[in-house]
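Sat 14:20. Reprocessing the chain from the morning session after the first attempt stalled halfway. Input below, unchanged.
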Amino acid sequence: MQTFVADVGPSILPSDTEAVTEKPAKPSKVSVAHVVNEIKQALAKYREPSLPASLWQLSSTVVLFLGLTVGAWFLLQVSIWLALLAAIPAAVMIVRLFIIHHDCGHGSFFKSRIANDVVGFILGVVSWTPYHSWRWTHAMHHGSTGDLDHRGWGDIPTLTVKEYFEMAAWKRFFYRLYRHPLVLFGVMPAFVFLLLQRWPFTYPKNIKKVRMSVHLTNLTLLAFTVGMCWLIGVVPFLVICLLPAAIAGTIGVWLFYVQHQFEDAYWERHENWDLFTAAFEGSSHYDLPRVLRWMTANIGLHHIHHLDSRIPNYRLQKCLDSIPELQHAPRLTFWQSLGCMRLKLWDEDRKCMVTFREAHAIAGR
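Finished this time. Tokens:
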């Protein structure tokens, strides 16, 4: 039987079950392996994409994005500062388009695979993300999230306390530098989305479709960049097109970070790792205000997405509302999520993320 552990409330805690609590402040955790199949069956009801809902979400977001982009052009004629401000809502629309692109990669936005692939490729150009290569690495992420022995696929590089102190001093320095918020959420998103994703040779030679996706996206972006620079000029292109993409990258990395990098996350060695437990305990419920949920297309309900990636983003909230067990996943509010920036390493003994200071105290250094 597969193990599935959830953070559950007292109303469903069996009277003869002894709750295991590692820290006094943590809620009790008990095995709910007996309801895994029921949860899977309940989620399966929400898999069917709705063509009207998909088309509405796609078209409304595209219209808003194009409107903001054109509006930024006119604002630029008045003041570059106004155009720079317009880049923020434009970036939010790119995030929404990226999440639609993400759903297409999972085959959940349309029933038709061709429709998913065509729309996914186009939106990948908008977000500077090659569709097929991203889909391949993201599938690897879904199949290995929380597995300490299979890290490095579409995740935030994370070391254990033991691994950190076993490294040479210069490697520790670069790890600390990488995990600094200004680098992780400032420099790295632009580097990854705008530059690193242009490189096709990090993928195995035998998956030609993935490499071809990178080449086609690069050619499309090159033609778009040259055309827009010729049409409106280099500086307007940087302000109107490139800046929103860079900001969207930062928002995207932040969302991905808080989805898996929180104190009571889930990491296990492969022999003890379980897919369903990783989905439920290792993916947060980022409980955002309604307007932010709309801006991020419900991606904060990440535990549900990892439990069943074939559910369209616009059905995730209905899943949460109708399946009580899903409400017991690790929950983060916006203000609580800001504290996650301090967490840098996984402590295998305490089963939690810790800060560098805490890690030094644990290691006695």
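Strands lie at 5-7, 29-31, 159-160, 285-287, 331-333, 345-347, 352-354.
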